[in-house]
Amino acid sequence: MRATNRLTAKGVASAPPGKHADGGNLWLFKREDGGAQWVLRVTIHGRRREMGLGAYPAVSLAEARRKAEDARAKVRDNIDPIKDRERQKREAARNLHLFKDIVSDTFEGLKPTLKGDGVNGRWLSPLKVHVLPKLGNVPVSEIDQIDIRDTLAPIWHTKAETADKALKRIGICIKHAAALGLPVDMQVVDKAKALLGKTRHKTVHIPALPWRDVPDFYASLSEGSLAHLGLRLLILTGVRSDAVRHLQEGQMSGDVWTIPGEAMKGLKDKTPDFRVPLSSEAQAVIAEARKFSRDGFLFPSIRKGVMSDMTMSQIMARRGMKERPHGFRSSLRIWLAEVADAPHEVAETMLAHATGNRVSRSYTRDFDHLDKRRALMERWGQFVSGKASGEVVQLVAKR
User: Fold this and answer.
1) 25: nearest Cα among 48, 54, 58, 45
2) Which stretches make up the Tyr recombinase domain (predicted)?
C-alpha cells in the first residue's frame, strides 16, 4: 500500500464518517453531519502537534497535499509551521489596518493632551471632513504621496489653513502607525507637500478696532447684559473669548484671574495656568456679571452651559462692523507699544504669547511679569473706560 497519496478525490467525497489517512501524517476527519477537516500531524522541537489545513470541500485534496508539503518543509528547516502561520496572520492583520482606525487610535492617545480632551472635535475636524471620506478605508501601509496630494489638492489653495492642519495631522497619524510597527513611509507627508506646491492663499487677519476708537465702543456697551459685560471684560483683559465665556468664580482670587492651562490655546501639557491681573474697571464688570452667575459660571447661557461664542461677535456684526472681538487683542497690543511703551516681553505676556526660545522660556516659566502687567492693565482700564483721556493725549503728543 502506498505510504502517501492514499486517498482519491472521488474517495474523499464518498468517505464515511471517521479518520482517513492520506499518508505522511495527513488526515481527513469526517463528521457525522457530512462536514470534514484536513489535519496534519507534525513533530517539532520534540513536541507532537496537529495543524489544521482547512475544511473540506473548501480545501480540496490536492490543495491539502500542497499545504501539508509546505508545512513539512518548514519542519525540516526546524521552523514550527503553526507558529509561523500565526506570525504571518499577525503581519497580514497589521498591514490591513485602515487609515480611519489609525486616526481613531492616534486621537485616543492624544486626547489627554488636547484642550478639553478634544471634545469639541477641532483636532479631528480637518481629517473627518476632508481626508477620511477618501482615505478612511485605505490600509495605512498603502497610502502614498499621490493619495494625499489628490485628497488635499481641492482645498490646498482655497482653504489653505485647513489643508495644512489636515496634512500635519496625517503626518502625526503616520508616525503613530510606524510606532505600532506598521510598514509606512515616514516621508510620505513631505513628499505630498512637495507635490502640492506652495499655497497661493494669503492669511487674512481678523480686523481690529484702532485703539483710539476703543473707548467710544466700550462706552456703547451700556446695556448691562451678559453679552455687553462679556465683551467689556474681553476688551479690558485682552484674553480670548473662550476664557471669558468659561470664567468661573473659583478662578479668581483678589485682583488676579487664573485661567487653567487646559482653557488656554494649545495643548494642556505645554500650556501652564495663566494669571490675568484685573484692573479696577475689570473688577467692576465682574461684580455686575456675578448677578447672572449660574452653576459657578459668570457668563451662563439662557438654557444650559455657557454663553455661545457667537454672542459677542453678533454685537459687532449687527452694527455693520468688520471688526470682531478677537481683534481687541491687537488693539491692546498696539496701545502697549505706541502709548504705554511697554517692554516687548511684558507686552507679549499680556496676551499670553510665548517669548524667547524654548530654553529661555524654561528658565522664566515662573516669571510672568505680574506686577508690571498689573500696572499696565490698570492704565488700559482707565483709558478704555474714558477716565484717563488727558493722560493718553499727553503721551501721544510726547511721542
Assistant:
1) 48
2) 204-377
